[in-house]
Every structure is written in C-alpha cells, then in structure tokens.
Amino acid sequence: MNAKPENPPQPAAAVEDSFPQTFREVFRRHAAGVAILTVNYGGRPYGFTATSVASLSAEPPRFTFNMSRTSSSWPAVANSTYLGVHMLGLENRELAERFARTKDRFSGDHWETGPCGVPLLKDVPAYLVGRIELRLSFENNAIVVVDVVDGSLGEEKAPLLYHSGSYVRPYPLEYEI
Amino acid sequence: MNAKPENPPQPAAAVEDSFPQTFREVFRRHAAGVAILTVNYGGRPYGFTATSVASLSAEPPRFTFNMSRTSSSWPAVANSTYLGVHMLGLENRELAERFARTKDRFSGDHWETGPCGVPLLKDVPAYLVGRIELRLSFENNAIVVVDVVDGSLGEEKAPLLYHSGSYVRPYPLEYEI
Known about the structure:
The structure is a homodimer.
Chain A lengths: L11 H4 L3 H10 L3 E2 L1 E7 L2 E7 L3 E5 L2 E8 L5 H6 L2 E6 L5 H9 L9 E3 L5 E3 L4 E13 L2 E13 L7 E3 L2 E7 L5
Antiparallel strand pairs in A: 1-11, 2-3, 2-6, 4-5, 5-10, 6-9, 7-8, 9-10, 11-12
C-alpha cells in the first residue's frame, strides 16, 4: 500500500480483513511521548506506562488519556478519584519498561506518596496530579478526562519517546546525523 | 520547582496564579507525534496540525484527538461527518508549519479528494479516514472520537515530532551523539 498519487489507496473492502493490522501500523508510525499514570486504590499504589496522554486545555488545566479496560490497572483507575501523570525523560527508560512489562512496579524507593494520596515517581521532568472528571467507555477501551489540581516541574531533561516499538530520543532537525 | 525528594513540590495554593503556565510547561516537556487533520465542509477543504492524536482501539479501529473550539477549523469539524488524519514524516515539516501557522493551506497540488470526500494529503507515511462518532465539549475545548473506515500506508519514513516548541526527529537510544 502506498499513499503516492500514482498508487491510489485501496478501497476499504479490499483491506477489511487486515484493517486492524493496518491501523496498528499507522499508529506505530505515529511517535509519542511516554508517561506513567499512577493511582492509589484501596491504599495500594497502581501505575502503568501510556503513550496517549494529551493536553485538553491549560485554563482550566485538563488532560486526557486512553486505556484498555482489560488492563490490570483499569479497576484502580475506574474506582479512584485522583490520579498522577509523570512525563518521562531519557533517564526514566527503565521505569517506563518496568511499568509496561513487569508486575513489580512499586518495590523500592523510586516513589513516595504525594498530594491527594497519589503515588509520585521521583526524578521525572514533570508531573501533574488531577481529579478524574470523566471515564468514557467505548467497548473494551476508555477515554479518561482529568482536571489538574497540582503539579510540579523537575529538572528539564530530554524526553523519552516511543516510536515503532522502540524507545527513542529527540534530535534537532537542523543537524544532519 | 523541583520534583526531587529534598525539594518537595509546593502545594497547589502557592502556585495557583501561575498554574496554567506550569501546566503548559509540563506539556512542553511531553513530546508528541505530529499529525494533520482534514475535513471537507460545504465543499471546501479544511485542515490543521495537531499533536493530540491518540489510538483508542485497534478493534474496532478508533482514535481520538483534542482541539480548541475557538479554532478556525472547529466549525468544519463540528459540522462534518468524515475526517482524515495524516501521520507526518520529517519530509512533511513544511506542511506541518503551513497547517499550523498560515491560512492558505490548500492552494497547490499537495492534496486530492479521497474516500468519503475527505481531503487527503499526498506523500505522508500513513493516513486514516474516519467517521466522527462523538464530539465532547469541555468549555472551549473538545475531545473528538473517530471511527476509522479507510486508510493506507505510504513509504515508511522517520516521523516528525514536536517538543518544547520545536520540530524534532527521533534518534535511537543505543547510540551516543
């Protein structure tokens, strides 16, 4: 498949069977910043890595993210009032992998309890704490809208990015590599 | 402000006045992939650059984006049924700037009419065409949910990223620069 004019896109019917695969590949090509979301649910910390965090408005400060309702973290997000989001830097890559692939996410001193009881990860470039305003379910997935109530900036560092199944770093356009 | 444990975050009250500015800085530190959204409204093409596009689910294929309702493109998005999203590559940087900063976005042969009448930009790494399922307004902003009905992959190229007010490219973590 090719988007060039001399190779017009195939009609939907022709690609229907494999379309979810095409859709996944389209989003593999869409790079994203990496964040970790955390909640305190029943006195226990929960958290997971996400690449869908997006600003909704600065005034009032509000953001969104999307997640699967089949995720092990969904019951915690579904039943908690407050939530933390951490924007990750390059130095947080191990944290990103730990919160994406392992189950043992909070053993250690890499976090502390923050405002509104939310688990806060240390040494991240920035974090926000917010109140979950809305969870909007679409079949097995949900959009979550969060009203920010607190937050802070850490040391500014290069951000951690995710693209095509790998973690990457940003590089200026002006310099050829 | 500093997220390190020896400098605990200031309480919300102390930063209240400047909080929208802190929020903006938090999202400046969150890098994002760059996309252009397009619609055909009343026979005219509309489009704009966005950094909030996120996958919601692959089955069914569905994505979201956030936008300001004060945007000049909002009436077109508010009143159209179908919409296109184009994932941009490095070579599309001029297109990204044109659809973010200028008003003359469709003069030229860089686009054609695609499925469901949606304006399709040529020579992009990937695009999707979808039906707008929901527009959810939060004061001056909106979350838009799109059910994908078509789409195609172009030539795979390095993605265009946006971080801290600049366009950047991805670079592997494994190599020191």
